[in-house]
Amino acid sequence: MTLDTSRPALVTGATGYVAGWLIKELLEAGVTVHACVRNPDNTAKQQHLIDAAAAAPGEIKFFKADLLDEGSFDAAMAGCGVVFHTASPFTVAVDDAQRDLVDPAVKGTRNVLNAANRTESVSRVVVTSSCAAIYGDNADVAEAPGGRLDESVWNTSSTLEHNAYSFSKTEAEKAAWEIAGGQDRWDLVCVNPALVVGPALQDRPTSESFNLVRQMGDGTMKSGAPKWYFGIVDVRDLAKAHVAAGYKAEANGRNIVFGHESSIFDLSQLLRAKYGADYPLPKSAAPKWLVWLLGPIMDKSMTRKLISRNIGVEWKADNSKGKRELGVTYRPLKDSMEDMFQQMIDAGQFAK
């Protein structure tokens, strides 16, 4: 795939987990990247992007922008052809779901897409949505066509009180389609990834995915890991999917992106052969009754409703559209998990 390098591409949330690999792909293709960050002077936080640009033909320029600041993306977007909106809070433990999750996700999406409406050079906007905008709980899968999620399905079970993160992603994507439908100059493509794993470009990423894997290796799950099923995608494969969504003429609509269906327990077992002798990886699955009993005590975000509707309930989805139209291919899940775990070891994230 040949990318148009005549105009810059804008990436919001540039220091994020997914954005890092996306920016690396763009730079290696020779694209000039306008990277939106909260503080352009924080060189330490951006060093991995600076290093990526130094080793690639493309160029990176940093711009100050904030999701909640109307108009703050205008300067960065000037002259850009493609806009990649990856910025959105990803956390499950919050004090105020409306303030900490929904407002940044929805208002941020509106601010970025309204800026695209004001920027004549923009021809396509790619929004990093989520499979969380398609379903809320694994129990929802049974209601999908043929018992398998596809791009026609929307999350209707999440609320501010239940699965607030999923609710925020659903509301943000709805806002994106609403704004896109009100104009006809640029087209919108949404990428809907499942759980993202794999190494980060920065040494100490803050994604919830790393918190999950950390619990596998630090002994938190030593007595058993839950059989909570997800779709899984390697961050590097997801970055390539974003590039295709931005530059392939046939890219359109929503695109579910995942390579594997697995559970937290099964992910931990992929690490046992290489790391089991040195790290307290779980050896067994935690029974659902035990998770239901102790989960809310150990983690207030693990409600019994959440446990009942997800633990032990299989997750199934159709990823054929992304394969067909974005040309996405997926690496072995064992490689993704080992690369991620080794990076965390090298960064000293497991105390000996």
Automatic annotation (TrEMBL):
Q: Which SUPFAM superfamilies match?
A: NAD(P)-binding Rossmann-fold domains (SSF51735)
Q: Does the UniProt entry include the keyword Translocase?
A: no
Q: Which GO terms describe its molecular function?
A: oxidoreductase activity, acting on the CH-OH group of donors, NAD or NADP as acceptor
- Keywords of the record: Oxidoreductase
Can the keyword Oxidoreductase be found in this entry's annotation?
A: yes
The NAD-dependent epimerase/dehydratase domain is annotated at 9-252
Any one Pfam family match given in the protein's UniProt record, by short name: Epimerase
**Family to which this protein belongs:** Belongs to the NAD(P)-dependent epimerase/dehydratase family. Dihydroflavonol-4-reductase subfamily.
Q: Which PANTHER family match?
A: NAD DEPENDENT EPIMERASE/DEHYDRATASE (PTHR10366), STEROL-4-ALPHA-CARBOXYLATE 3-DEHYDROGENASE, DECARBOXYLATING (PTHR10366:SF564)
Q: What is the protein's name according to its record?
A: Short chain dehydrogenase
Q: Which organism is it from?
A: Tritonibacter multivorans
